Structure formats: structure tokens, C-alpha cells
């Protein structure tokens, strides 16, 4: 199990692992259900927790186990089936549930799975509450809590969950606009957005070309979606589309393809959104929240428009926490998580897509032109598979390589080194004015990681 800020089970986005292997087992899901039900059962009234999932085969196993654990604590369960993660956040609020659970490993391959939680407000749980849930899983303090007879929880299926979320998303699109005449390609990653995303775009008037909308439990994220937008890029060009949208497995992020077939990442989308909101006067405190991994070109562009950028650690939950703390309404990550806090509580690939489409319609400019608001600083990002996540300050050769890179770059670039919160990876990011130099520096740091903790 990985460690993250004192937590051993939870990473930056819930619990992750290979399905049916510790910690991502049915037994753990049952225990998590019991612990979460105890945390959110605050009175004698009837409580309820909502459970949604993506399209992975292992979702059935984990869903039933978690529902059993919740019911065993005297709390009811609302089952919504496959639905985007932001849809579960929305329904948790809309249905007045005490909490929401998402069974998904997002962009990971189908053999993995994960579990993350939303509070009744629709926001992800803070570190302290996740730490409390971990404690309850291991200290035995709730083992004897066994409601009986009529006190045992019940499970109910929410049959109109997709329709409810569909309406919510469409209501974020400006009422004076339509997508009539626009040709849009969408890649749903064979994930949880496979039904609702094409429906929303079609109902708003777009002519829709669909990719990866036939999930079979095993093909989620396989050569498709936000991590693999190559097929989408081909489809945009071959079908003469105005743009393409690639969701990930749980549809909380989106990567775009412009009308020239070029990939548009989260930093560019965040900059475009900031530019449009600054133009409209709707960007709270003229500030955007981004993570330490976002390209330096984002800062340069937004500051050039008269705005500001605040940086956070990697993870959309930390972006949202900073937005709430500072009173900001736009934030996101290079990976495609973009949070419009005036509309929703978490990253939502569909809402992001509708904002981009509305901007295209409103301005009359193609995405290939809108993206030019940001000029990327050369950046190299390398991933190193690791066998363990030893504290980076303890890795002597890694520290030496980092110091050497920082000395070479001086103040003309950045070095960010961290472990992934969801995978057994070390991530090395180097930015600077010279592409060849920063690649050499990044490879030096990555090589040091491989020597110290790399998979052999």
C-alpha cells in the first residue's frame, strides 16, 4: 500500500490497485463500505449512500461488496450503475445522499479498479476524513456494530440516473446558443460516458461522430480516450469535423482535437477558458488555479491577459480545495481535468466540452485559432516504473541529478519530480528554453530513479 500524507490506502484520487488483489479486493470494498457508512451516519434518521461505477468487469464485484458493507451498518444504498464520476457527484447532491462512492480507476487499464468518495456537498473528501476511514478499517472499533432486523440497510436502483445527469449538463450550456451546424467527434473511451456524452451533444444540435462507445468490460481506455487520442485525431480529419473530444474512462476529464487534427491539452483549454471568462468579466479574482505540472506557457499567457495563476500539488482535489479556499471559480490540470466551480464541484469532461463548444460558437473562431492564446514552453515529461516509493529526498543520485538540472536551468526553467498518486510511477518534468537540453536533464533524473528504485 502506498503512503501519501500519512495515508496508506488512499492516494491522490481514492484507492487504486489491480482488481481482486490487495488492496482492491471485495473484502476491502466491504470494509470500506462499513467504515464510510459509520463516518456519515450522524443521527438516528435513515441515511443513504450512492454508488456509481464505470464499465470495468470488476465493477460488479466491488459494487456488490461495498453495498453489502454499507447495508450492514444500517445505511441504505442507491445504485446508479455506469455513470461519469461528475454525474455521481451531481446525483449525490441532487438526491440528498449523505455521500457518494465511485468505483473506477479512471484512465487506468481494465484490470485495475479504484474507489473514491464524495461528501453530501459533491466535493471529494479531505485528507483528514480519508485518514479516519483508514483507521476504522484497521482498528476494529466498528466490528461489533451490527444492526439487526429492520435496522439493516436496503439497496435501491436509480433507473433515471443518466437522464438526470443529461439534463444537468445541458443546463450549463448557454440557452441562447445551439450546436446546429457543428460536426463533433467524440471518443468515450468505452467508459462511463458512452451513453450520455453522445446524447448530450446530439440533443444540443451537433452532428456527432462516435468512437469507443461499445464497452465490453475489458476494453475501457484500450487504445482510445484521453490518453490515446490518435484515432480521434484521424476521425476529425477524415470526417471534416470542427473538433473532437476525448474523454477518459470515468469522463471527468477531456482532451481535445482541433479542426487541423492537432491535440489540445488541459493547459490550453484552461487558458482558453480563462481568456473567455476574463473577456466576459466572470473569472473570479481574475485568477486561475493550476498544478505544479502545468506548462509555464499558461502563466505567461494568463498574466499577459491581466490574470493570475495560483499553483497547487498535483491532483484535481487539491485544485478544488484551493479554489474553495481562495474564492476562485476556474482551475484544472494539464491532464484535462478542468473545474468550473460555478457549474459543478469537480472536473467534468462533458461540461468542459460544452464550454469549449460554446466558445467556438460565440466567437465564430475555430479551435485551431482559439488555442493560440497560449504558447507552450518546451517541456519534457518522463515516467519511470518503480518497485517502491521511497522518499525522494533519501535517493542520493536522484537528488544530485535534480540539483544539477536546476543549476543548468538557473531561473529559466523548472524541475518537478514526484510519485504518481494512482500508479507505481515516478514522474519527471523539466521545462526550459532549449528542448534538447531539458530532454537530456530529464533523462538524467529518470536514469537515477531507475538505478535507485526502478523495476528490475
Main sheet: which strands, in order across? Answer: 1-5-4-2-3-6
**Major sheet:** 6 strands, mixed
Report the total helices. 14
- Overall structural class, as computed from helix and strand content, comes to alpha/beta
Number of strands: 18
- The coarse overall form would be globular
Q: Please compute the radius of gyration using only Cα atoms.
A: 22 Å
Write structural notes for this entry.
This protein is an alpha/beta fold. The chain is 36% helix and 20% strand. It has a six-stranded mixed sheet, with helices on both faces. Strands 8-7-9-10-11 form a five-stranded mixed sheet, sandwiched between helices. β7, α6 and β8 form a beta-alpha-beta unit. α1 packs across α4 and α5 packs across α6. The longest helix is centred in the last third of the chain and has 19 residues. It is globular. The relative contact order is 0.11.
Q: Secondary structure elements and their pairing?
A:
Layout: E1 15-18, H1 26-40, E2 48-53, H2 59-71, E3 76-82, H3 85-94, E4 99-103, E5 112-119, H4 127-138, E6 155-157, H5 161-170, E7 183-187, H6 196-203, E8 207-211, H7 230-238, E9 243-247, E10 254-257, E11 263-264, H8 266-280, E12 287-291, H9 296-304, E13 308-312, H10 316-326, E14 330-332, E15 338-340, H11 349-363, H12 367-370, E16 379-385, H13 396-409, E17 414-419, E18 425-431, H14 435-453
Parallel strand pairs: 2-3, 2-4, 3-6, 7-8, 7-9, 12-13, 12-14
Antiparallel strand pairs: 1-5, 4-5, 9-10, 10-11, 14-15, 16-18, 17-18
Keywords:
single chain; 456 residues; alpha/beta; five-stranded mixed β-sheet; 18 strands
Amino acid at each position: 500500500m502506498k503512503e501519501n500524507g500519512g495515508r496508506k490506502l488512499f492516494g491522490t484520487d481514492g484507492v487504486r490497485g489491480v482488481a481482486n488483489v490487495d488492496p482492491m479486493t471485495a473484502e476491502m470494498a466491504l470494509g470500506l463500505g462499513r467504515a464510510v457508512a459509520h463516518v456519515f451516519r450522524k443521527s438516528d434518521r435513515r441515511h443513504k449512500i450512492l454508488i456509481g461505477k464505470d464499465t470495468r468487469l470488476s465493477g460488479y464485484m466491488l459494487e456488490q461488496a461495498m453495498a453489502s458493507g454499507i447495508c450492514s451498518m444500517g445505511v441504505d444504498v442507491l445504485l446508479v450503475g455506469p455513470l461519469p464520476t461528475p454525474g455521481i457527484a451531481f446525483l449525490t447532491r441532487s438526491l440528498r445522499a449523505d455521500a457518494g462512492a465511485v468505483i473506477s480507476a479512471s484512465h487506468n487499464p481494465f484490470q485495475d479498479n479504484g474507489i473514491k468518495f464524495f461528501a453530501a456537498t459533491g466535493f471529494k473528501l479531505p485528507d483528514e476524513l480519508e485518514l479516519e476511514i483508514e483507521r476504522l478499517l484497521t482498528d476494529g472499533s466498528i466490528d461489533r456494530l451490527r444492526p439487526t432486523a429492520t435496522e439493516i440497510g436496503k439497496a435501491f436502483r436509480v433507473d433515471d440516473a443518466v437522464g438526470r445527469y443529461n439534463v444537468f449538463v445541458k443546463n450549463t450550456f448557454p440557452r441562447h446558443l445551439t450546436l446546429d451546424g457543428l460536426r463533433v467527434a467524440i471518443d468515450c473511451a468505452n467508459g462511463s460516458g458512452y451513453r450520455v456524452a453522445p446524447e448530450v451533444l446530439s440533443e444540443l444540435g451537433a452532428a456527432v461522430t462516435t468512437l469507443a462507445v461499445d464497452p465490453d468490460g475489458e476494453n475501457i481506455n484500450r487504445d482510445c480516450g484521453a490518453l490515446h487520442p490518435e484515432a480521434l485525431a484521424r476521425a476529425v480529419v477524415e470526417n471534416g469535423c470542427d473538433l473532437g473530444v476525448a474523454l477518459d474512462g470515468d469522463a471527468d476529464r477531456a482532451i481535445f482535437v482541433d479542426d487541423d487534427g492537432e491535440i489540445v491539452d488541459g493547459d490550453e483549454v484552461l487558458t482558453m477558458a480563462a481568456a473567455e471568462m476574463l473577456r466576459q468579466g466572470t473569472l473570479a479574482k481574475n485568477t486561475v488555479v493550476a498544478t505544479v505540472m502545468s506548462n509555464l506557457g499558461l502563466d505567461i499567457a494568463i498574466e499577459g491577459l491581466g490574470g493570475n495563476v495560483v499553483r497547487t500539488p498535483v491532483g484535481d482535489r487539491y485544485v478544488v480545495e484551493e479554489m474553495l479556499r481562495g474564492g476562485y471559480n476556474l482551475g484544472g490540470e494539464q491532464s484535462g481535468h478542468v473545474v468550473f466551480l460555478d457549474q459543478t464541484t469537480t472536473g467534468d469532461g462533458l461540461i468542459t466540452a460544452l464550454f469549449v463548444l460554446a466558445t467556438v460558437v460565440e466567437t465564430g473562431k475555430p479551435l485551431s485559432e482559439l488555442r493560440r492564446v497560449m504558447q507552450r514552453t518546451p517541456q519534457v515529461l518522463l515516467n519511470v516504473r518503480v518497485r517502491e516509493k521511497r522518499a525522494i529526498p533519501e535517493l542520493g543520485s536522484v537528488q544530485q541529478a535534480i540539483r544539477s538540472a536546476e543549476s543548468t536551468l538557473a531561473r529559466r526553467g523548472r524541475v518537478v519530480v514526484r510519485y504518481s498518486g494512482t500508479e507505481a510511477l515516478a514522474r519527471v518534468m523539466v521545462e526550459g528554453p532549449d528542448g534538447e537540453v531539458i530532454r537530456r536533464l530529464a533523462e538524467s533524473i529518470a536514469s537515477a530513479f531507475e538505478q535507485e528504485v526502478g523495476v528490475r
